[in-house]
User: What shape does this take?
Amino acid sequence: MARSMVAAFLVTALLPAVADAAERLVYRSHSPTRPLPKTSQRTMDEGPARFVDAKIGNDQNDGSKSKPWKTLRHAVSSLKAGDTLYLRGGTYYESVAISLEGTPGKPVTIRLFPGELVIVDAGHRPFYESPGTAWEPVENGAPSEFRSRNSYKTGGNFGNFGDSMIPFQRYITFNDLRSQNELWHTGLSNRADDPKGIYAGPGVRRDPETGRIHIRLAHTQLAGLGKNHYRGETDPRKLPLVIAGADYGLRIEHAKHVRIQDLIVRGAARSAVLVAESKDIHLDGVTLYGSGSALRAQQAEQLKLTHSALRGHAAPWHSRSHHKDRAPSGYLLVAGGKDIEIGHCELTDHHDCILLKDAYGVRFHHSLLDNFNDDGIEPGPKKTHGTMLIYQNVISRCLNPFTAHGQFQVITSEPGSGVFLYRNIVDLRRGTYKAPPREPDPSGAFLNQATTILAHDHGSPTWPVAYIYHNTFLMSAPAWRGYYGLTWGSHLRGTTRRLFNNILVQVAGVPGMNFSAVPPDTDFQADGNLHWGIEGGPKQADDPFMKFRQSELFTVSQKTYPPGWTTHDRIAEPKFVRYDADPSKPSDFQLQAGSPGIDAGVPIPAAWPDPLRGMDKGKPDIGALPLGAGMNLFGPRRQQ
Assistant: This one.
């Protein structure tokens, strides 16, 4: 289902390209910022087949192809180990609990029928199918304010435009929903009601007293938004809308050996899918439209998410402040349990991306992470056992790409435990709105509020043990306080960290050499890294390595790392095939022949995982791609 995966990923301006293609179609709301789901041609399985058809089925039928069931809820209750349930094309307005138990050799599979588009929608049906009679104007309300004709006991707090799936703002106060103001003002930094309020673009709120859902699709006016304005239809009666209803679309609880394939799940008030206390659950090719989150896993074992797209609730006009300070927001994906794999996926457009605090034995690979206006990947404040492998991903437009929450605690990790971060491309030359943009900025600096911190924390937690090697990092602005390694040399606090053979590039100036954030109780080593500034690199006059290697800290570092930190570090242009200070231009981060990164790294322990080690001839090449490796090795690829 999530067939938006690219065959060969060149890091470029993703959203403008999608928007340009979308402009060829007519959308009453706003052109999609992400490819809309397409159907799958996955061949039919062997084994017993059951069928459900929301259009012509009947739950009194026997579930055969000629006599399908009507509801997914009834069909699921009739399945047994080895069955495959085929959903015929259409929308199933249901919230479905799945507690099935297959076997390792005979899983239960729930999937679409080849070539047909299937949507599981937990939302309120009238707003999509009959919007003309679902809404009425609000007398004495704000301009363009409408409310539902009926009352609803649940939902109404999240939603999407039905044509483009652009998400709505979750309003928690009516003063914000009705405000004529879009500028931040004093006293607005918390979630309490405010007389003046702030309008954050099209959004919804259910009145807890009446149960009626209010909506406002007024145009945005901030001059700084530029092409990111909302200029679509303002009357909700004239276009289909997805309005959140039940808490979850699919609730997979106490289940074993279940496969979910090629479905679209939307319209949930809390999360599109919940997986709780279940084992061997595989979601493949699904598209999940998130509310508070898109996927939430609790005490899951052997959970796999592959070839899927998770879309969040950040619209083009939203900023970090809109989500963090005016609408409680969370992580797009929350995964707790053990033996979890997330691969060949797209995770996009939300406040925070992925929380792995209670997850052990994680593989997160070959995925695209783009447009998160706060935190990106959070392994959790400490990992005392188990490994977390994060590799061959493409990460872009994220305020705090790697982060941790918690309080300081000294930890002792088992040998071999920790986070292994390797062979990733992290391109942060483009940023996200940190606050509503007040004025136009021809330089693009406001939109490019790119992070200055690769590694960020909240509350001074102890970070997990981390091994960071063979990555390519690019940032727009100088690292916070000039910390070494674009801040990988900070936020350490009593942990173990290795930083080897990475390419570290920033647009302005050369990445800093400040080691002042390295506390004495930290087991830190760094070497073989290549540093460069796209604009300021050629003007670098002083050699920061020479100064550092004459310092007392360098001498101290030789006690635990005999060569000494930075001994094989270099400041030199990496000579990528193609890149620029302008992030809208196509980039290719392969090394050219003659690059100073070739055969310039330090040896990496054989016990550290590296899928591209065999492609690296001679001494280790620095960066994510050894010479001759292609960009198609990174990010999601189309499922065959």
User: Anything to note?
Assistant: DSSP finds eight helices and 40 strands in the chain. The first helix runs from residue 14 to 22. The longest strand covers residues 293-306.
